[in-house]
Amino acid sequence: MRRVLCIACVAFAFVLPAFAQQPADIGATLLKDPSIRAALEAAKANEPDILDYQVRLSEIPAPPFREAKRAAAVRQIFSELGLQNVRIDEVGNVLGERPGLSPRPHLLFCAHLDTVFPEGTDVKTTRKGSMMAGPGIGDDARGLAVLIGAVRALNQAKVQTEGSITFCADVGEEGLGDLRGVKHIFNQSMKGQIDAFVSVDGSGLGITNVGVGSHRYRVTYKGPGGHSFGAFGLANPIHALGRAIAKIADFQVPVKPKTTFNVGRIGGGTSVNSIPFEAWLEMDMRSSDDSALNAVDVKFHEALDQALAEENARWNNRGKLTLEKQQVGDRPAGRTTEDSMIVQRTLSVTRALGATAGLGEGSTDSNIPMSLNIPAVTIGGGGRGSGAHSLSESFDSELSWQGTQRALLLAVALTSK
């Protein structure tokens, strides 16, 4: 991990060497520019409209792998804002370009389209004063709204950035989406074209510079099954599953770096009086350290194999079980060091606006560029959120304009040479 961190820092200095010539407190420097101050004032004045966009987008269902309707709405908004080459790519990401005086540095500024809520969820938003409530109102309708607010304010103040910005509403950030949107961008459609990455995800003014990696599996034990009385003596897939889960529950993992594991779902069987023909589980394991994550992964596979062998041996291989393992998620861990230029500039623009923010860790779209040694951070979109990933999710829009201001100021800072 130390090697990765060092490379990330060096990569940023190599791609954008002119950054080193700027004063450390670039946020304060940018505030001296009348056009920047005008953009910040516009962002604050526009916030009621931006909140309307937030509600509008939140009320367009975007369940996992079904983001197309919301994507179409964002594409229309991007076009109305005057972004260039607005398009929806092969996997469903919406992209629009705001050219600078030169193509580089090139900043990719994203928020994700998808929610965790399945098809059929009531996503109606209610509003009372500064409070807004509804599934997905903060995560990540707020991020999408901030992108819109930043572009609008930059345009109104006629801010011309030195480098160029591609704004993106990406798919597949949540759950089994497995970051497929940003994976496609960084590994295929825009490979080698991005110098820095920012994701706006959720509320608050936090800064995520550590990417928590995860491995996810769906595992199935299979056998012939039969009548619980007449076929008694056959190996039982659910019993094997229970053996495996008991072993997993006893895993010992590091406290630092924080490393976790969770059997989140199980299923199988047809009736109470039938030996099942299959049983399955879904497993999530996480850590910000690849070595710790891989160590849990090894234990997991050993536990599964041992459970299979024990269940088969218990019944002398009668109705011998088989085991299928499918990896359904692979988010690489990563980190952008605290002393890197992108983190320092994010802290600087936050200070310049009179706010404070700490650094933290999380599993976000930034994991992918971090793992590729491309400077990246994820920032909150302002306001205060609660109940993320629940039907009672809410967003308090008091002072939420600070998130829009911070995003646009950061966009200018990261495209400055």
> What is the chain-wise order of helices and strands?
HHHHEEEEEHEHEEEEHEEEHEEHEHEEEH
**Low confidence ranges:** 1-22
CATH homologous superfamily descriptor of the largest domain: Zn peptidases
Helicity level: 25-40%
Helical stretch tally: 11
Number of strands: 19
Q: Mind summarizing the main beta sheet?
A: 9 strands, mixed
Shape-level CATH architecture of the largest domain: 3-Layer(aba) Sandwich
Return the average pLDDT rounded to an integer.
93
Structural class determined from secondary elements = alpha+beta
Fraction of residues in β-strands: 15-25%
* CATH fold naming of the largest domain: Aminopeptidase
CATH hierarchy, class of the largest domain: Alpha Beta
Distance between the termini: 29 Å
Radius of gyration from CA coordinates: 24 Å
> How many domains would you count in the coordinates?
2
Overall geometry comes to elongated
Please tell me about this protein's structure.
This protein has 417 residues and is α+β, with helices and mostly antiparallel strands. The protein folds into two domains: 2-212 and 334-414, Zn peptidases (Aminopeptidase, 3-Layer(aba) Sandwich), CATH 3.40.630; 213-331, Alpha-Beta Plaits (2-Layer Sandwich), CATH 3.30.70. Helix content is 36%, strand content 24%. The chain has helices at 2-15, 26-30, 34-58, 68-80, 141-156, 180-189, 237-249, 290-314, 341-352, 367-371, 401-414; strands at 84-88, 94-98, 106-112, 126-128, 131-133, 164-170, 196-200, 207-211, 213-222, 226-227, 259-268, 274-275, 278-287, 322-331, 334-335, 359-362, 376-379, 384-386, 394-396. Strands 1, 2, 3, 6, 7, 8, 15, 16 and 17 form a nine-stranded mixed sheet that branches. Strands 4-5-19-18 form a four-stranded antiparallel sheet, with no helix packed on it. It is elongated. The protein starts with a helix and ends with a helix. Mean pLDDT is 93; it is low at 1-22.
